[in-house]
Amino acid sequence: MIDAPAADAPAVVEIRRLWTAFPSSNGGGEQVVHRDLDLTIRRGEVLSLVGGSGTGKTVLLRQILGLEHPTRGEVTVLGQRPGQLGARDAAKVGMLFQHGALFSAFSVLENIALPLRELKLLPDALIRDAALVKLQLVGLDPAQAHKSPSALSGGMIKRVALARALIMDPPLLLLDEPTAGLDPESADGFCDLLRSLHRELGLTVVMVTHDLDTLFDLSTRIAVLADQHVIVSGLPREVIACEHPFIREYFLGGRGLRAMEALHDAPAPAAAAASER
Amino acid sequence: MPPSAPHTAPTPVAAAPSGVVSAPPRIVADGAGAVVAQGLWTVLAFSSRNDWNALAQGLRELPQKTELAWDLRPIEQLDHIGAQLLWNHWGGAWPQRLELDPSHKAVLEHVAKFTCRPPVEPRPTLADRFRSFAHNGPRGLAVARDFLQMIGQLVLDIGTLVRAPHRGPWRDLSGQLYQFGTTALPITALVGLLIGVVLAYLTSNQLRNYGAETFMVNILGLSLIRELGPVLAAVLVAGRSGSAITAQIGVMRVTEELDAMRVMGIPPGFRLVMPRVLALAVAMPLISMWTSMAALFGGMIAADLALDLSPAYFLQALPRAVPLSNLWLALGKSAVFGILIALVACYFGMKVKPNTESLGRGTTSSVVTSITVVILVDALFAVLFKGVGFR
To answer: Which of A270, B89, B191, B218 has the fewest CB atoms below 10 angstroms from its CB?
Structure first.
């Protein structure tokens, strides 16, 4: 587990009174996904978004990225509204998509270097070296550089996608199911990698995950989405103590109990993150 | 370790509130022979063209001496790109005299540790080229074999359908008929009409020269019904439905839907290829007749306007000028075109590999190949039936 940052660290993402509604699939009316959702993510946090299927976790990530716009309310990322994304904005937010979203027409190295190349300013040698450094930073061998994404395994695709997300050293990293579809060993390796990158690069990480091991392994704070808003957010132990039926089912079912054994030998956190509600 | 610990964590780049203008990255040589780097050495700062050019200029103008002393302490922020820039400028070695902030050291150490010679991109050797050349010959045969296999499978599937018609994919068939046939009517009518008008106007000039205006009916009737209608309709359908079939089946292959069908015991040939082939075999003659009708209508209007041939005369002369066998020939060859377009499109769809590039290439090849095949087969029909339908 990673220690939580101080409670008064500057906010990286602020979500205020957010409403999201989609047109209902069975004819008229609309389906409200988020209702008056508030969430603040502070610098240095590793925040995990947890919730049942269809509670709008991925939608929330996409709204932070500016790929979707809330029906009402406000999302601020690093003091700005997301949505006017240009090539330079890749330096602010990095996103690891669930299936990697690598460009299949490009090699691994070209994929990683693409955001830098899009600036159309830096010399090729510098871009290539920087991409090679990031490639090794995520634990891949330079010999993989010229492979095409279709020749990579699932774990390697995630690593390359992470390297691409990190190429501009963004202060905010969003992860959508980072360990889904990985074997336990790769998932552990990926968690270790994320932990060391978080420490070394001073990242703020927002993560959507269903993998309880990853959840307890990495998060400094867990925010639980249910009933269309954040029902509780806080340290893992605070969240588990919550009496909401969803939380009892999610964490205190068989899988949850097994995963939580990891918590027992974790050191007590230095500073408590402020609970949202 | 808290992320704010000074000796490992560089402060995030853009976390500073926007609006605060920070110093651009600069290189300054002080009097004592030391080089001082200052400002924001981050990719965000480099992405301003003026700042980058000034910095690159500053680096170029430094004397080429290895014993330069570097002072990096005034740097406000250093990210991996900034560190890479310094490291590459140093030629991949630490300068002898270097003073820097501990938080920047970690970033530079990453870069120093991981910068390596780029791996050589494997280039095809002569042996590789020979092997791929030797592979290409048999590949043509493999295409022929796969295509033949597909036709054979189609025949077997039709046999299955005839033996047990109640188990046939009739809903698929009617859906495809609507999609390939009904929805193609407006565009084929428009194109046919315009071609008819253009053809009538062009020939009317020539015919007037010879005083042979009445032959307009023969020329339009024969060329449109026998040749242009079927070929035009086939080219349009190849572009419209052929590409759609390839993309549909190709995406199903990319998303493993085809494998899922096989696992459930649903043969893709029976459920995907056969309904499409049958639908186009039925729809294509109808569309071709529809296109010919639209073209004749356009030609009739144009003939009335340009040559004063009344529509009544046109309709009366048409059956005499064009024997009925031309219509049967056109319908027959349209059915063949439809079958070929569907088979080619399904073939390329099945051959798509699971990446976007292959999907695009497959769709293009499908359209180009089916149009080529249509025209080749049309030429074959012209040769084989050269004695049929003329008076």
So the answer is: A270
